[in-house]
Amino acid sequence: MANSNWHIQRTPGQVILSRQLPARFDVQAATTLRLQAGQGLSLSRLAHQVRQDMWRAVQRVRGFSPVVQVTLSEAGAEIIAGGRAPSPIAPGLAGRIQSVLEDPQKQMRWMRHSFRKDSLEAPAHGVEK
After folding, report:
1. Which end of the chain, C or N, has fewer beta carbons within 10 A?
2. What is the rounded end-to-end Cα distance, in angstroms, of the chain?
3. Which pLDDT score, from 0 to 100, does residue 121 have?
4. What does the alpha-carbon distance between residue 109 and residue 71 come to, in Å, rounded to a whole number?
């Protein structure tokens, strides 16, 4: 465990951030952030940024436990955000998470924060969708 009891599971090209193990998606939303070649991205920083914004949007959902998975692919950084939720799942929960993932201002902030300082290139000013 690291970062105040958050579990971080790392495999090459993927990070899963969760409060509980095993990580489980009872509810989820997804998006892909396009990356430029050579852009150094910290997957764990990105996962933490997404988790923070998702939590702000759904923190009043009783029993919700966030999970964020970030996977590098040819398309970019594929993000699945959601988590454990008690049954019945709160109406509109997936939609609230999806709206967080699709917010262009949040995406730009995530990319700025997740950019590795030792990388040769700075991130693009915007995030392509």
Report:
1. N
2. 33
3. 46
4. 18
Please provide the DSSP assignment of the chain as one string: -BTTTBEEEEETTEEEEESSSS---SEEEEEEE---TT--B-HHHHHHHHHHHHHHHHTTSTT-EEEEEEEEETTEEEEEEEEE-PSSPPTTHHHHHHHHHT-HHHHHHHHHHHB-TTSSSPPPSS---
Q: Residue 3 pLDDT > 70, yes or no?
A: no
CB-facing half-sphere around the CA of 57: CA atoms within 13 A = 23
Least confident stretch, 49-53, 93-97, 117-121: 117-121
Single-letter code of the amino acid located at 109: R
List beta partners, residue 84: 65
Measured CA to CA in angstroms, residue 98 lies from 18, 22, 92 at distances of 18, 23, 10
In degrees, rounded to 5, the angle at the alpha carbon of residue 80 between the alpha carbons of residues 89 and 104 is 105
